Amino acid sequence: MTETNPATRPPEYAAIRTDGLTRRFGSTVAVSDIDISIPRGTVYGFLGPNGAGKTTTIQMLTTLLPPSSGAGWVMGVPITNRDRVKSHIGYLPHESPVYESFTAREQLAYAADLRRMEAAAADERIETLLDRIDLIDAANDRIGTYSQGMRRKVGLVQALLHEPDVAFLDEPTNGLDPRASRTVMQMITEQVEAGMTVFLSSHILSVVEELADTVGVLYEGQLVAEDTPAELVTRTECTDGAGTLEEAFLDITTDYTTTANVR
Ligand SMILES: Nc1ncnc2c1ncn2[C@@H]1O[C@H](COP(=O)(O)OP(=O)(O)OP(=O)(O)O)[C@@H](O)[C@H]1O
Question: Record keywords: Nucleotide-binding included (predicted)?
Answer without folding.
Answer: yes
